[in-house]
Amino acid sequence: MDTYSQVAGPSNGNLTSKSGIAPEIVMNGVHEPTLEELERELPYVGDGQIHLGELVSRTVQTIYAELTELAETMPNMSDANRKRTLAEWVVKTKKQVVKLYAVVRWARDAGVVQKAMNVTAFLMDQNAQFEEAINRLKSAKDGLDPARMRNHDLLTSLDVLTTGSYRRLPTIIKQWIVPPDPLTDEEVANTLAEVEHAMRYRLRMIDVIPLEMSKYRISDGRSFFTAPHLFEASLCVRGAKKDDGWFFVDVEFLFTIGGDVTSMQDFPRKPVGPVKRHIADEADARLAFYLPVPENLNPPPGVEIPSPRKLPEGVIDAPLVRVFNFLQMMSMSYQLEILWFQAERLRSLGWADYLKVEMTNHRRTLTLSYWIRKPPPSNQRVNIPRLGGTLTISIVKSETSSSPVSKAHPPHRSAKAQVLAELQERSKLGERKRPSDTVEHLRFEVKWEPQRVALGMSIPFEAVTLPEGELRVDPDNLDVESLLRKVLFRHSVAILSTYQQQLQHATHTIAFAYPTAVKLISDDVSTHLRVHLCADEVVVVSIDMRTGRLGIRDTGDLAASGRAPRFQTITEYLNINPPLLADFLLRLRLNTITDLAEQKAEYLGLQCYRQRNIPQEDLQRFGPTAKGYLFIQLSMFSANYLVLVITDLEFRYALIEVKRQEGKVIDTLGIEDLGWIDVRRMRSGRTQMELNQAPLSRKRKAEDANDEEIIPEPGSPASFKLESQVLRELYAYCCARVAYTKVEHQLKSHSIPSSYVKPAAAGGLPPGLGRLQSSLINAIPALCVKSSDLLAGAEGVEAAMPNIRIIPLHWWADQRMEVVTCVKLKYVQQPLGKRAGNSSVIRPSKRIIYDANEAVVSFLSEDVDKCVNEFLEEWAKVSKMVVIAREVAQMASEKNWGDVRLLSFDLQTVEFAYAPDYSVSITCGNHLFLDGPYELYFSRPRVGNEQSRYNPHTEVEPFMRNILRHGSLGPSLHRLVSLLRETLPIVLVLQEIQDKAEQSNDNVDTFAKSAEWFRVLYGDFKHALDFRLMKGSRVLVLDASHSLFPAAEDAKSKDSKPINGLLVLHPIPDFSQLVSETLKDLASQKTIGTVHPVDTGLICDGSAVTLIGKALYERVLQKLKQVLVGESSSSS
């Protein structure tokens, strides 16, 4: 529009317009801005908005990246998967394009919306200015109220009257209003030169410069410091005075972003805006850390200026060191943030499900976890790591140089650099002074921690070790994807190499041992295994470096033969359990071998199965070389199978017993017992028997033929040629062996070796079981076990003969199977007592038969599965009783203890008298070995009434019982009997004291503290009398408040703090006098024997403890009553 019309009142202005030139509006001689000028003055508001071009660019890049990914991954997919994947991608991409189209349509009104937002911001700014003006006016009003008028300025008034102008303006007005004269170019150049001279002097003579940024230049009034691969910073000085410090000007970070160049615009090398202001503020704060506060600084009211920081004595400020440490950290943190951004962008480009990016809170450690796997199902037993490994990039302080680091940031200074740094400090600071700060040597540490069992394969350490310096952060090429791909490629090669070694060199992969069977094909981009199965059939095994999943595809005609679906199924299952790769490759070979063996078994009319529902952990018992199985069920024993185990070299034969597992939805069989069959030995024995029956002229020819025809050599072409005759004999042998399998299983579970002997050498059945005979029992070898093996760890092993027979019974009939174990004893102890009877063969229990004439103990077990445990349990009891009975029978002669005699013995219980009218009965508990408890029952057999049958040793039974549990049984028994005899007088006198106290209603308690220590506790619970058994059957009677060990008594008296006098026993008043009086009263009696008074008691013979104990107890009791009466009268 070239002309404008204006409607207003009287106007003195002019309106001019020229074609192609914005019209100029003049009103009343004042220029009025145009509409375009007013719009340019509006503030620009860009919050919450992005450029349409950037949105379009990112959408196109995402679509291109997804297309590239599909081009790489779709060739490995089946046709159905390719179609489904492509259709899903088309639908998803169409939605994104439609959304983008809608955004483009909306963007047509972006200019109007932007103008409205700018106007809104302008109005808000105007509103804020109005409010600020109101507040300022109010503050001025509040400040002027208390102000006073100044005196009249007469001189200024005269100047105005005489000259008509001001001649004496205040200095403050000149400084605020009158602009200073600008400097000329020459003055500016001279000023910059002086500043450069001051900086040059300070850098050369005063300030300590870190060697890492010692490369600097001075120009344009600034000092430019360059730290290679870190930053280039420009600083300037505040002045030439000593207290004038440095201030920050600008910085440029020295790095180059690699990989996707579109991310460079997000990370400028030169910070601008708020980032630069933040860096400048932080750098200035560090440069002025020790500078004094300006004197003319007027803080706002209520703000206190902090006191300046003072340097310690002998310390010189080093501001350049501080600013270097700060900028170094900023540069390295900036680079780490770039790497984090690149990793997050990788996730958005299809890596999200397989790559995990983590940054620590302090933003110094970046962790990339690759090959993330989804959590396995709860019922899955395969333990595969949830990730393939981690790549950690950290900013650390340099201490050692053992790990790979960035070339730009060496781990520490060299010796030459260190000497130069020391020389600089000495020359600038002096000999005895040091800088306030030291250089922090930071570096990037790149640490690769691969899972050595990733994909279920244990990888050698050297296979996942990269050369030193291979993994490093290069500031000239910041690309986290290249670092990650190096790691992924190395890890993939290591895993495939491990698979190759496993297939070629492991025992279970001997089928692929020839050189060209497995080849590792690797280039700079990808790697895979080429596995030759047979003929022209080749499969390729690869690892997707993005997902970490194994892939198997064929290169021959396998797909044409209908096997393609199998590859897809096995690939999915293989990624759940990757160690099954070798099993898949061996499956084709194993199927043919299994078919041949199954054909032979069906020809013989045997029931066979290729698979039984047996858990994998039970199948592992067949050994690591087992590749396949054929289960042949025994018709006589449905729970037993003859198993043909297929290995890489030959057949192996095993006899197993299975059991159905309860509590499972699917009927599962668990292997209860497993035994290997040496078919060569079996066939050789049969052949030898046939040779013995053949004429002599035929023996040599038969031997030569049998060497080659009985069983082929392992690994030979005929190693899997199974003859029908061999299979028939194996089946017959297994039926005879099953009867002993259950017994052998028990022995193996206890690691007990066993052997077979001829039936004639084993002897017949024990007495009482002779009627259980069979015509076949002599044709089966007997099972023999060494007593040192079977009874290892049990008590009384020396009482048994070397050989122990174990004979299963009823295996030839339909009755319940039993097992009898026969043990011949070395010494014979005739049973005594009522239960012994008059016969030489006694049966003290249902499971024990004892032949006294032959000294044979037979243990009968009705449960075959627990026969060994039941025998050991019964033997532990019987052997201990036998040893105890033998030792008691020998005590009278060996120890001259005429009153010690055996009263009763029946292999279960031993009762003997240890003193006249005092006996003890010992019975073993239900435990097997030495730590099992003994049960002691004390009694008095000769006394008639029940009350007087009480034996005082009953109170000491827990302590006496423990004596038998320590050490060998023989010495322990001798110590038990000796203690019982020696402590009998003590327990008798304590019993008399207790009975007398109950009759006189005295509150006295007697109890045992150990097997040799007894105590009488008086009613006040503060005083007690101790009886201690000493060597030589002597007894120590003493005040219980005193210890036998002076050191312990001193510590007790120092550390013990009784509460209300209840925790520590008190000394008995005048105890020494009471002892002396007691001995004087008993001195006339010759029965007290030798008595030795001591400080806190006396020592006497055991025979005199009855008289002395009772007398001393009475005197102490009377004395305590007197003391109690005296205390009561004094308190009242």
UniProtKB/TrEMBL annotation:
Protein localization? Nucleus
Provide this UniProt record's keywords sorted from A to Z: Activator, Nucleus, Transcription, Transcription regulation
Source organism superkingdom: Eukaryota
Q: Which residues form a coiled coil?
A: none
Looking at the record, which segments are called Disordered?
Answer: 695-714
Outline the extent of the Mediator complex subunit MED14 N-terminal domain: 49-238
Xref: PANTHER family: MEDIATOR COMPLEX SUBUNIT, MEDIATOR OF RNA POLYMERASE II TRANSCRIPTION SUBUNIT 14
How does this polypeptide assemble, per the annotation? Component of the Mediator complex.
Function description: Component of the Mediator complex, a coactivator involved in the regulated transcription of nearly all RNA polymerase II-dependent genes. Mediator functions as a bridge to convey information from gene-specific regulatory proteins to the basal RNA polymerase II transcription machinery. Mediator is recruited to promoters by direct interactions with regulatory proteins and serves as a scaffold for the assembly of a functional preinitiation complex with RNA polymerase II and the general transcription factors.
Q: What is this protein called?
A: Mediator of RNA polymerase II transcription subunit 14
Naturally occurring in which organism (per UniProt): Somion occarium
